Amino acid sequence: MKQALQQISQPVAEQIVQFKEAYQAALLSDNSLLQQMVAHVNESSGKQMRPLLVLLCAQLYGEINPTTIHAAVAVELLHVASLIHDDVIDESDERRGKPSLLKRFKSKASVLGGDYFLSSALLEASKTQNIHIIDAIASMGRTLVDGELLQLSGSKEAIYNENYYINVIKRKTAVLFATCARLGVLSTQLTIDKSAERLIEMSEYLGICFQLKDDVFDYQEGGHIGKPVGNDIQEGKMTMPLLYLYERANEADKAEILTAFQNKEIAKIQQWVVEKGGMEYTQQKIAYYKEKALQCLQDFEDTPTRRSIEQYITLVADRKK
Ligand code: FPP
Ligand code: MG
User: Fold this and answer.
1) Which atom of ligand 1 sits closest to the CA of residue 87?
2) Ordered structural domains, the chain, with CATH
3) Global pTM value
């Protein structure tokens, strides 16, 4: 994974260094509790896939410039803010294999820590002085909230279906990727033209792949870094592998699945999902969205940057962790 990412990042290697510096600068504070929280979050900083996508998409359209870097920083800050808040909402003790901010600093400080990342994201967005970019970042925040709320209210059986679920993941995951493409383009040109729309569409498919892959990992032993198997069930989330079974079951089986789901009988559900093809089905869906994402790139000139974006899609869709 690390090696593949390094190769994908090659065309924007220099700018990634700039991004990292700007990201740290955006979080400077003289409040010692904030310093500790920022240091804690930075210890498990993730792969920073989203800023990489902003940079690659900008380079596909023109030259990466200070606006691109500000936009990439803003999107990563907002993403991290949403994860901090998400762990408070999910009462999750772990994030990326380490104790979550919630676990170490408790909920009051964590909410404020998340607020700090969110406000820093908006401040960074304002540095672009580009109203379309500020709009895209703020709108993305609103969509994330919408997705998270949809998921909260999704604990009712009437909405356990694939369409509803795809809608949720478009809002809670794919919007981030789509916004990365939008920001990349808007940092190099004023408007979103037809080809930019294709690039944004590509990123949305990519985001769907990303989430579905996450769903698969939740059913695999050792699949998800830092998350126990069945974490989604534990949190009351019926994701694609189980939805596949549920939607196709007769009334009696539906009731049985629902009872096991509500009682959080993880081992039992995991066995059903594996035996009845929920994993294969989700893999097929991932392959479907991967293909759609790659198709969106067809009309772009064959450059190292386009090839990097193609490899990025493949990495997301085929990743093992
Ligand atoms: C992780 O989902 C969470 C998200 C993708 C979005 C969370 C969004 C919010 C809390 C609202 C918006 C917040 C701001 C700051 C604007 P998950 O719980 O399925 O995945 P996980 O396993 O990574 O926790
Ligand atoms: Mg969560």
Assistant:
1) 24
2) 2-318 (1.10.600.10)
3) 0.96
